[in-house]
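User: Quick sanity check before I run a bigger batch. Here is a single chain. Can you write out its predicted 3D structure?
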Amino acid sequence: MTGATPAGSRLRADARRNSEQIRAAAIGAFQGQGLTVPLEEVAKAAGVSKATIFNRFGGRIGLIEAVIEEVVARELFALIGRARAVDDPGERITYYLTALRDLQYRQPAFNDVLLQTYPDARQLMEICRAGSEANEEFVAAARAAGALRPEFTAGDLHALVLDNALALKHGELPPRGDYDRRTMYLLDGIGGRTRETT
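Assistant: Done. Predicted structure follows.
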């Protein structure tokens, strides 16, 4: 009996290992291709069957819920925190929009979150809510400081971000230099008197 491993312990260890492998594979696949990547690809990368993903996580929604913190939420919330640390409202909105568009360019999964591709994923929708609140906060402060056009609203920002998400998800990824140049065009277009006098 000494040194023997009970069958139940081996099964639990196998289950944990499978779950960890699936999580790691999902994070890599979602970050690289977005939340709509076929589960067969995740299963292949994890070295398990697609059925194992359903057994461990209940399917795509459960898998998204299990890894969305590492895939999107942590970086987005850190971005928002860094923006809040910028004292000047004009510099804050410039940093926020630039960093937000950078995240959209780098992380296909972030665009799926913005587009609410899986509205049944509770954490995904919570990320959207937090992002909307940040949009409203930063736009209101920048408008009050004259750093944005007075008619520019958080709704306008939301629409611009969604338009960009759709273009990145369904179009060809532009060269990074062109993309960054268009970010500056956007900032110049929505800027108020503070940006116009600099």
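The radius of gyration is 21 Å.

User: Great, the batch can go ahead then.
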